[in-house]
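Q: Got a minute? One more chain.
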Amino acid sequence: MSDVIRSMTGFGRGECQDEHYKITVEMKSVNHRYLDLGIRLPKRLNPYEADVRNIIREYAQRGKIDIFVTYESLSGGDSQVCYNSEVAGEYMRYLVDMAQEHGLENDVRGVSRLASMPGVLTLDESEVNGETLEKILEVALRQACQSFCEARTGEGEKLKDDLLEKLDTMRGLVDSIEERSPKIVAEYREKLFAKVAEMLGDAQIDESRLLTEVTIFADKAAVDEEIVRLKAHIDAMEKELRTGGAVGRKLDFIAQEMNREANTTLSKANDLTLSDIAIELKTIIEKIREQIQNLE
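A: Always. Here it is, folded:
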């Protein structure tokens, strides 16, 4: 579903078996910029690593995902230990000859030392039905992926609701900036005229020059463009959240642009009230950026 938002943290488990084999798959993930797969397979299942990777890519696009696969033979005849008597005898003969030839002590006395020699004990693995094993692995893996995605989706929906709430808070702050901004110029004009009048007394005031100063101040303090862009960024982020999918990178870029506009607004704020609003706005944006880092 395109409207699903997923977190990059999650856990999933799947299991499948028949009368001969049992395979269990567990997977967990944390945040990562890209898709990073760490797959641990038993030796018997190594040939299927590429298939495992391809299946997981159907379910996830980002995150550091660790996959643990265990394999169990239920028939009891999957493998057996074989003792090679001839190889053991050869080792013993050569060791005796080497000791006599070089005047060394033959220190191979324990059976465990002899058994550790290459080829003395081997694991004879019986023939495995590869097609059956592959099917069981795929069923277990897809079960794990589905429960994994459900966990990520549940967490993602919580993050989505929290982000939408924070965007509403941002809208309120931007509206407050928009409402406060014109008042700053009016207050500056009033204070400037009052101060000049106090200094000059009954002397004539050059209103045109004072209005020029007010105009210059208004131009420096104007945040109209920043307000327009902030509103556009808020709308864009909300649209991406409601559209869903793997939107983490897009949202991170939008949040960076939001922060840029908030910084510019704060730098232009020649007013304590406006500065407080801009600082609160930056705080909300930082919280949004932190939450976005958890989204796929």
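A: The longest strand covers residues 63-73.
Q: Perfect, thanks.
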